[in-house]
Amino acid sequence: MRQRTGYLSFATLLLPLAVFLIAAARGQGQPQGAYQELYTWAPIGFFGLRVDNLSFPILFTISLLTALISLFSIPYMHHKIGDEESSQRYGLYFALYNLYALGMLGTVLATNLIQFYAFFEIMLVPSFFLIAEWGYGDKERISLMYFIWTHVGALVLLVGILLTGYLTGGVTDMALINPSSIPSTLRLIIVAAMCFGFFVKMAQFGVHIWLPYAHAEAPTPVSALLSPAMIGIGGYAIVRIVMTIFPEAFLTLSAFFAALAVVTMFYGAAMALVQDDIKRLLAYSSVSQMGYILFGLAASDSFGVAGSMFQYVSHGTAKGILFMVAGAIILQAHGERSIKKLGGLASRMPITATAAFIGFLAIVGLPATNGFFSEFVLFQGAFIRATNTPTIFRISVAVLGVVATALTAGYSLWTLRRIFFGPTNEHTATVTEAPLTVTIPLIVLSIVTILLGIYPEPVLGGLFNAARAIPILGAI
Amino acid sequence: MFTLAPWLIWITPLTGALLTLVLARIHSKVRNYAAVAFTLAAAILATYTALTVAPGDYQLDWMPSFRLASGGSPLRAGVLVDPLSMFMINIVAWISFLIMVYSLGYMKGDDGLTRYWFFMNLFIGNMLLLVLADNLLMMFFGWEGVGLCSYALIGHYYKDQQEYWVGTPGDQALGMPQAYPPSHAGMKAFVVTRIGDIALLIAIFLIYAYAGTFNYNELASKLSGGGNWAASLARLGLLVPTAILFFGGPIGKSAQFPLQEWLPDAMAGPTSVSALIHAATMVKAGVFLTGRMGPVFYAALAQFGQLTPFFGTIAWIGVITAFLAAIQATVQREIKKVLAYSTVSQIGYMMLGLGVAGLGTDFLLGYTAGLFHVMSHAVFKASMFLAAGWVLHAAESRFMDEMGGLSQVLRLTTISMFIAGFSLMGIPPLSGFWTKDQVLFASYSAGQFVLYALALATVLLTGYYTMRMLGMTFTGKPSHHLQEVVEHGGHLHEAGLVMLVPYFLLAIGSVAIGIAFPFIRDRLTTYLSSTILIPTSATAVVQASPVPGLSLELLLTIVSVVVAASGAAIGYYRYFGGKHPFTMKMGAVEHFLFDRLYLNAIYYKIFVNGMMLAAHALYRYIELGIWNKLNMIVPQRFYRYSEASATLDTRIVDGAVTGIATSGSRLSNLLRRLQTGVTEQYILGFAIGIFLLLLYMIFVIGAS
Fold first, then answer.
1. Is B99 in the same domain as B246?
2. Which of A270, A390, B56, B348 reaches 20 to 30 Å from A422, CA-CA?
3. Least CB-CB distance to B63: which of A145, A213, A456?
């Protein structure tokens, strides 16, 4: 079998995609389009799996990405592992890869806080091993760094979760928690603890340092999952858990979060501007993009939340494309990652170049890519909040958020130019187009990016409904 | 009632763009002719719609969920058929068609032709979408689409071969190089216009937050009563800032001061692209949008007596741009750069017209002056660019000092260029004369004498630089470079019909419009005044205002003609017959103008270098200096802990690892490699989590 195990992995990962589509179809007509299965899980409560307006877009993105990237893994891991090693190595890789996918999907599906935490940790384990085993550079140290940071975050989150359970008399089912029994100061502490955990996962400024290392040095297919799929789950969890259960407490802290988000947007983009390693650049770009997600959430209104969650989808497709593009370049240009040494690749790799073009346009937020709608809606959300409770602070933060997009456009186009335009050089003159297992995933994701950019209603419509269903925040 | 035709106008070129990719697989000829045919179809549809379709807003559902939670209408996509959009698309579509025909000859043999046709049709389609959209969001699709296509087309020669660069090689200003490769120029165009777009977006967000709609008609109708968005903005003191931020978009797109610096470098694209950008699409988008929302802002601002700051900004930016660009055009070396600066300058006139509309009592006079100038400029500038494209192709150089005496070989091109050039100068009875004159008249009759004086000075400069360009290119002796071209068997001959006809036709068009204009002006004005968004108050003002005496109008006309003629005369005496050869050894003032008032260099220094410097400093001192250090310290702490538990480690963990390793699992190798001070932390990490969970199980769940 060797690297062809990847086809098996691809086939098995298509299953969840199909299941979610069926579940979403079944949920039609239910409140919030919910289709859920609950199993008694004594003594904790229920072990539930829920597909609804809010989780469907996230699940769709994760399952689409994991399926496509398992195809991309085939040539990439062959390049990384080689022929000499025994086929077990491929087996181990794809086993961990599928376990990783399971962790992410389980986290999104969870209906119970304890269950959520369990999956949240499950997704950490395989990704840790994937980085430690097949990463680049000082991979053991980097994987450990990744582990410690996100695990510390997860522990703080756990404290928040357990405190909630303790104060509500043991109820941890998200739908059953009654926050009114919790004193409001404690509610603020719980929200702060949970948000801290999720901010580490989302690599917000201050707790971001693990990300550029982990994402840059992970094997590229894993980077292509870490960055677009995993870290954004922090944002989803804020909506699913924090904003749904503790809307007032979140609103109280939201002005501070908005400021943090703007700092992250600017900081990540500025860091991306000075990177020479493609993958490190993309990693910092992800930091900046996570700032966008938090920015929308901090608006705490229906536009901000819907836009943010749609930003998860558009960042997912775009960054999936871009990490695969980076992988394709590493694959075809004999492991070259330094942007300085690249150039003129547009004529050598036309499909990859076109995909990179679309991916970066989505990051910039240009119309006719899904990135436009997500950014437009979330920024609109920030302005609705700013005009609803007009303060100089809120208005300035909203304006600064839009200004940050200039930096994003700057680093995106500049990177595109340095990699793909200009004359070819000794490193790039003989490069050829990547194999079909790379270009087909790129083409599929590009098409999704553009279709959702022209007609986002199927995804964004559900998200608007989900956001309006959140009490207090959804009212504006 | 829904009518398909207005929708098809913008869908047709977009479909053409997509089909180009498919048709390219059949045959290159099929692809080329099909691309032109799609543009022609759009042009025919545009005229058909203007003649037969009743004005109205033809809508479809787009995003029913996209609406304010507190109410507001769901987002719908629509095509707005009204006099303004019909006036605009007919200019855009027909001129685009002629440019596409010209491209058939001009781009022959280019190896990126599929990409070229794709983006050309996409460009035209997006421009038509921008004009026809009935709401700001859909307009923004076209707006950014236009920006994207200009980026791709300016950077068409993305391999950056030396001959496609723009600027004089080696020229520096304040230590910053002033010559750019195409891929850089494309990026610059995109990023600079993006800055304007950010301002525009902020304005759109603010308006939507209160109005709950993007639709032009609804925005206009929501200016009174409870849902008055302008009143809500005015209450916060944000109405004027919003309007001015909105105008930021047009400033970027239409290359107005202070965001004009991208346009001269945009000359790195193929000349047909320059023609499209300058005559029909891109830069006209800003003027159009100002024209589209101008009446709405007029009505909004008039309620609060805040007209002057907004319309004054437009007028002043327009006139400053017109003047600065014209004065820079007088020292250029590249023929396309003369034309580029001339475009910037002429768009300044259009903005001036739209600006003074809100300053005087007669809104329609200035408003239509700006729009009429869009029309006449589109025609003569397209002609000039297309002709210049052939000139520099034949001369195998983009520099005017490497041309000279071309009238002997390019007879028809010379005639065409002179006609269009006279129109640009404002010589009667060509089209440029009438429309520019109306702008001048409007500023004078609005009582804006300083604006009028600056605009008049620009007329002088325009006459001068146009004659300079014509003289340097077509008269005198052929340059040394040209003689070499002839010796090496270059094609120094007249353009083929496929290229010659489009620009000659446009030059004739400029004459025809010029002759017809005095007779159709009133009808066109009445037509445009029925644009549904022209506020009734403004039209009422027109009827009530005293019509300025004809004698004053005639006097101003004579003044402007004399000024234009004197500018032309100076240009003629200095440059006709090769009297003043171009040299890079310039005086201080000339150098200042040639190096773009150092503005370009200063922008690079502050915004590009400054930004990079700041980012580098942040990276070095904050990211690596603080966060990365922290990142190193934390695991060291963990490491110390694991050293303390070394005994435990060797006995239990290591033992277990060795056990698994002998069983041959590959995973154990990994564990063994990791375990030097790593595994403990891993296990410790999970242990804390499991411990907490256990506590919870025992004390919380167990207790309940």
1. yes
2. A270
3. A456
Residues B258 and B343 in one domain: no
pLDDT tops 80 at residue B551 = no
* Beta carbon pairs, A and B, within 8 Å: 202
User: Is the Cα dihedral A426, A429, A435, A441 positive or negative?
Assistant: positive
Residue B40 placed within a domain: yes
Question: Does A41 contact chain B (CB < 8 Å)?
Answer: no
Query: Does A132 touch chain B if contact means CB atoms closer than 8 Å?
Result: yes
| Angstroms from B137 CA to nearest CA on chain A | 9
Tokens linked to A426: 């000794």
Which of B242, B269, B295 is the last residue in one of the domains? Answer: B295
- Better-scored residue on pLDDT, B667 or A241: A241
Q: Say whether residue A458 is in contact with chain B using an 8 A CB cutoff.
A: no
What is A319-351 written as a DSSP string?
A: HHHHHHHHHHHHHHTTT--BGGG---HHHH-HH
Same domain, B184 and B47: yes
The answer to whether residues B283 and B317 belong to one domain is no
Mean pLDDT, residues B289-301 taken together:
91
In whole angstroms, what separates CA A104 from the centre of its chain?
A: 10
The answer to whether position B300 is within a domain reads no
Give yes or no for residue B646 having a pLDDT over 80.
Answer: no
Nearest-CA distance A225 → chain B (Å): 22
Which B residues in the span 588-627 are in contact with A, Cβ-Cβ below 8 Å?
611-612, 614-616, 618-619, 623, 627
pTM: 0.91
Q: Is A421 exposed, middle or buried (0-12, 13-18, 19+ CB in 10 A)?
A: buried
How many domains is chain B built from?
A: 3
Strands B172-173 and B75-81: unpaired
B99 lies in the same domain as B17 = yes
Pair (B676, B574) in one structural domain: no
Q: How far is CA B471 from CA B323, B418, B465, B468, in A?
A: 22, 10, 10, 5
pLDDT at B542: 41
Q: Do B612 and A274 touch (CB under 8 A)?
A: yes
Interface contact B137, partner A, CB < 8 A: yes
Q: What is the pLDDT of residue B680?
A: 57
Give the model confidence (pLDDT) of B3-30 as tens digits: 888 999 999 999 999 999 888 888 888 8
* Lowest mean pLDDT segment, chosen from A332-346, A378-392, B100-114, B525-539: B525-539
- Position A351 scores a pLDDT of 92
Contacts of B155 in chain A (CB under 8 A): 421
User: Are B319 and B287 found together in one domain?
Assistant: no
* A44 contact residues in B (CB cutoff 8 A): 697, 701
* Residue B277 in domain: yes
Same domain, B589 and B608: no
| Out of B62, B181, B666, closest to residue A92 by CB | B666
Q: Looking at per-residue confidence, does B476 or B118 come out higher?
A: B118
Query: Is it true that the peptide bond before B429 is cis, omega within 30 degrees of 0?
Result: yes
ipTM value greater than 0.85: yes
Long-range contacts of B230-239 (CB under 8 A, 24+ apart): B230/B299, B230/B300, B230/B301, B230/B303, B230/B304, B231/B303, B231/B304, B232/A387, B233/B206, B233/B207, B234/B303, B234/B304, B234/B306, B236/A387, B236/A390, B238/B206, B239/B300, B239/B301, B239/B304, B239/B306
pLDDT reading at A429 higher than 90: no
* B170 falls within a domain: no
Per the structure, the complete domain to which residue B359 belongs is given by: 306-529+546-594
Q: How many CB atoms lie within 10 A of CB B687?
A: 11
Percent of chain A with pLDDT over 70: 99
Contacts of B205 in chain A (CB under 8 A): 379-380, 382-383, 398, 402
User: Taking Cα atoms as reference points, which of A302, A452, A459, A451 lies closest to residue A378?
Assistant: A302
- Split at pLDDT 50, 70, 90, the class of B630 is confident
